[in-house]
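Checked the freezer inventory, then went back to the computational side. Two predictions to log before the end of the day. The first one is the construct we discussed on Monday; recording sequence and tokens without edits.
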Amino acid sequence: MRARWYRHRLRFKETAITSRERLDSKTTYIIELWDEKNPEVKGVGEVALFESLSKEAGPDFESRLDSVVTSLGRDSVDDVLAQVSESSIIFGLETAAASLRAGGKSELWPSRFTRGEVPIPINGLVWMGDYRQMRERIKTKLNEGFGCVKLKIGGIDFEDEIELLRQIRKDYGRTDLELRLDANGSFTVENALERLERLSDFGIHSLEQPIKAGQPENMRRIAAQSPIDIALDEELIGTRSREAKVALLDAINPSYIVLKPSLAGGFAHASEWIALAKERGMGWWITSALESNIGLNALAQYVALQNPAIPQGLGTGELYVENFPSPLKRMGENLWYEVS
């Protein structure tokens, strides 16, 4: 086996704003695998490092990629995967290995989705901005036909966010439009329940990560008392062993978990999270974490195998000015795989 990696800079069409940061561009890493006996066929994966969320980010990250490439020259992919701890590298290797097995083609895991028979329903994502920007973005998503819209909140004045929701509900009732919110940990322990109470007036489906991760007792209390279903997102990052996953879910008892495989240990760990959530009657969905079209294609095909029951968060491929070619095409609120 042979391998190499290279950097790729993704530029946003508009500045992406969360309660944590502002992003105009993002560096991602592409890894290629090939058998030296057949070098024309390459498997391609994305090592989708998310620097502000990933604990594995740091000045030595690229040297760790070098070590992985060296290891692939003498060990199997499975052996290397067993030794790697970084979620983004696991995600990239899993994808590259699937791509190589598929002969370098974009169809990694055949399904009705990749045959173009069924789509994956997705939510429309509205990034933070000022009041005017967010209102225009919401209108755009609704005009595009989305029946489920997710708003990132916590970046502007809370009263302005309340007014935005009030305006939405004037035009779209609860049966017409599902609203999801993502606070990205921007609430405090002191104000979370009061804010959740006010937000509940607008028929919110769920709210992701009201307070910062790492406060399980406070999160459990908020989840138990909240009038809105609570979803865990950043809380899941870094939890790897089955025992730790069980302990976290049982300690907090959320209504939903939101999985980013490139941050949560790759696809194998995502499958374990989903199984544990199902055992506890918790809902789940998969969301992308600013991957390029390479990572998004893998995510979509993985999601299709899970038979999702609710809209998924797979719309971020449209964020970038320049991206890799992709078989994925969004039509309204559905993501389709275009069969060539």
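The second is the one RB wanted added to the comparison set:
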Amino acid sequence: MNLKGERIKELRKERGLSQAKLAKECGISRSVIAMVESGKQNGGRDFNKAIANYFGVSIDYLEGMTDDRNNSKESLVNEFVQFLIDNGIIEDENNVDEETEQIILSLIRREVKKIKGDK
């Protein structure tokens, strides 16, 4: 089993959920959850978002890039992307690739530095 699979299984068991119940709650097939938990499949971006949102953890946590369960950078990016969608700047969040996410983060960092008076 991989770390991502272990973490999803741990979160699921903490809530007393079967794979079938989690699948129903997240709109994902049970077989995909089983394959991700066993390390046979990665699940993809939409899967990660659904699981992370359901459990209130970060995708970084699911992927094993941090031990902090709290939403972090992708939460900020997701909120900003939703803002861009709500304001008609972009049409579909699923068309935002990793490079675009990094550009968004860079722009936010630059603006925060301006507000704080950093150079």
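For RB: The longest helix spans residues 98-116. The mean pLDDT is 83. Let me know if you want it refolded.
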